[in-house]
Specification:
Elements lengths: L12 H22 L13 H16 L2 H9 L19 H5 L1
Helix pairs in contact: 1-2
Amino acid sequence: MPRIRKPEIDFSDECMEAYDRLVALAHELSAMLTGDALEPETGECRTSRSRAIMMAMVYFLLRADPHDVQALFFSEKSLNQLTRRPAPPMEEPLLSRML
């Protein structure tokens, strides 16, 4: 019995650009957590431990309930009130000592 093909999903350019930005941010954050460097050419994680953390971050975002994300950032008195990003770390990243 032949396999049933699933229809191809057509994502908008805006969606793909947002996804690319989120993946780039996950690369940056995982490198910061592990203390590893990013590839200079691609801006991606260099080590397997950084890549594993990056993939876990992206998986978390994909599995999050859209209603929870909506409430977290766009409801009244939500995280949308924060006006700036956190400061850079003041010491060596914790995971770099443990891994």
